[in-house]
Amino acid sequence: MTIALLGINHRSAPLHIRERLAISCGEGGKPFEELKKISRIQEVLYLSTCNRVEVLVDMEDADEGLEGLKKFITAHGNLSFEEMEKCLYVYRGEEAVRHLFRVSSSLDSLVMGEPQILGQVKDAYRLCVKQKASGVILNKLLHHAFRVAKRVRTETSIANNAVSVSFAAVELAKKIFGTLQGKQVLLIGAGEMAELASRHLVDNGVNRMIFINRTYENAVRLANDFQGTPVEFDLIDTQLGEADIVISSTGSLDCIISADMVEAALRRRKNRLLFLIDLAVPRDIDPVAGDIDNVYLYNIDDLQGVVDQNTQGRLREARKAQSIVDEEVAKFSEWYATLEVVPTIVDLKGKAEEIVKREMEKSHGWMKNIEEEERKNIEILVNSIVNKILHDPVVGLKKESRNGGADPYVAAVKKLFRLK
Amino acid sequence: MAELIFFRIALGAYFVSAMGYIASLLAGRVRVARASMWVFALAFVLHTVPVVARWMGAPSAPSAGVYGSLSFIAWVVSGLYLAFQTKTKTQTLGAFVSPTVVVMMIAASAGLMDEHPIPFALRGPLVTFHIVLQLTGGAFFALACLAGIVYLVQDRLIRGKKVAGFSRLLPPLQDLDRINHLCTVWGFPLMTLGIIAGSIWARSVWGSDWHWDPKQIFTAVSWVLYAVLVHQRVAIGWKGRKAACLSIIAFAGLIFAFIGVNALFVTMHRF
Fold first, then answer.
1. At CB < 8 Å, which residues of chain A contact B?
2. pLDDT recorded at residue A244
3. CB-nearest partner of B239 from A178, A271, A296
């Protein structure tokens, strides 16, 4: 029985590979159906966000299971062996648990502390339960992960980092425009980072917000939240001529704002300064647009860079969060380690129960002469003797497993009691 | 001589504020720049005394001569900057304006040492008009140039994503561009009128309004550059970097016409 996690993320693989893999794997129940068929895999969770595709499993045989999982990934990602070796990370046991905890706590995110990822992990788990792909171990593990995320959020100021990234955007806007009063903001797409940045801009005096979304209803919803104006998706071009600050964070694969579009918009807006903020990965705005005079283009990495220049505190908080994760990994491992003795204990108890049952049946002849009540008392007595005898070995096994040295005891118990 | 005392105290105050401004940049504290602004304002008020006294004392050409002209330009630049200061968040622009003013003031006081009489040809009400307009226009363009330089620095920093340190102290781009814009479009008519006044006067004393005098040539070149800049700004809608660059180039031409020509060429247009 082994927990393992394998996947690719924004650090390990370029975007086109991540996209290809995510799209090929499909959504909803589709990846689960395939994953459950891989031999030796008992429980499986599939997580796909714009920055990562990960599969978390509990399996009977690690080597065989991982073989199947790697095949699954390479087939869908259309990866060569070298690419797979380079992009794919595989964690086993405690490392897998640690990675999951780090991901859920947003320590592994592009913008550390961004609030979206926990929701995405929760969604993935919900789907996993719905697909009946979860069991004792993943249930326990995921709930533990949610607890860790909550602890990290409340005990460290990691979450502030995402706030400071959007704050950095506001500070930059002020460095460019002086005052944000009367400035117009165009928000393309949605996403928590974008909404956070918008809220900061509104707090700093921006009073005209335009919302564009491929799904017009989403634009309307956001516009209602911010008292802005929703606009149709094909009007990006026109809006570029009007807005002073553009925040883009769509899930689009290609650039939706090209350098030519920006150049044309700049002519229409008589070269008024334009601040473009690209929060999307993959980028929504052609990086070349940043070379145009009077256009200032910052992407998410640039903003994170600005925040990092500003504070050293983030590292300290990250270390704090890391130690919380380590602590929780240890707790989970303790629980998980007792699992390896659980089948032996179950077998042992099963055998004892079997013996009791058999012996009681043998005694059936003479016992039918005594009263019903006394027969029950005898039964209770026998069971309690058996349980008393088994109690110490069971506790002992669990204790040894917590210390990581249960194997010889398990072997001894199996041999002495002739368990299979 | 009382005016000289005021002039020297003003110079001292300008110097103190310049040091304060520079210290504020080095220390990374905008608050220090705010205090320096008040010293700068005080220096400006003190400076007003010798400028006005000069006007009363030499009604024919109050701002002629090295001392008179430089002191006058420094005074206009200071006043202009203070006026902009109230409207924009440009405290730290003072760190560039005040040293410039100090340098002009020091040069002006050096000019005090060898004041030579103004030639007869350069006396008359139109000449006064010509000089005051030229110098005021020049002061506007000087401030435009300073704002342009700081704009280029800030633009560089923001573009290079180096916004945490020095850039944080520098004024916002749009404010700098606005100062550059306003100074250019106001300075241009002043200078144009000044040139017209000068050429009318030249016609009456020298018989013709164009002499191929080096000072005239370089002023004309700068004027054309400013004309282009004003056209691009107002009609085409130039903003930001290009406008800042052109205003710096044009001002370099103007400085050359004002100072360089005297040193390198023989000019009948000496003051």
1. 171-172, 174-179, 270-273, 290, 293-294, 296, 298, 302, 305-306, 309-310
2. 93
3. A271
pLDDT, tens digit (0-9, with 9 covering 90-100), for B99-147: 999 998 888 887 766 666 666 666 677 778 888 888 899 999 999 999 9
What are the structure tokens assigned to B227, written together?
């004309």
**Neighbouring residues of B240: CB distance < 8 A, sequence distance ≥ 6:** A271, A273, A293, A294, B151, B155, B173, B177
Residue A318 falls within a domain, yes or no?
A: no
What does the alpha-carbon distance between residue A196 and residue A64 come to, in Å, rounded to a whole number?
Answer: 45
Q: Are residues A30 and A135 in the same domain?
A: yes
Rg (CA), chain B: 19
Inter-axis angle of helices A313-362 and A407-416, nearest 10: 10
- Do residues A210 and A152 share a domain? no
Domain extent, residue A291, equals: 162-310
Q: How many domains does chain A have?
A: 3
Q: What are the residue ranges spanned by the domains of chain B?
A: 1-118, 119-271
A156, A178, A199: which is the final residue of a domain? A156
From chain A, the residues in CB contact with B163 under 8 A are: 171-172, 175, 306, 309
ipTM: 0.85
- List the single residue in A with minimal CA-CA distance to B163: A306
**What is the mean predicted confidence (pLDDT) over A254-276?**
90
The predicted-structure confidence for A332-386, as pLDDT tens digits, reads as follows 988 887 877 888 888 899 999 999 999 888 888 888 888 888 888 988 999 999 9
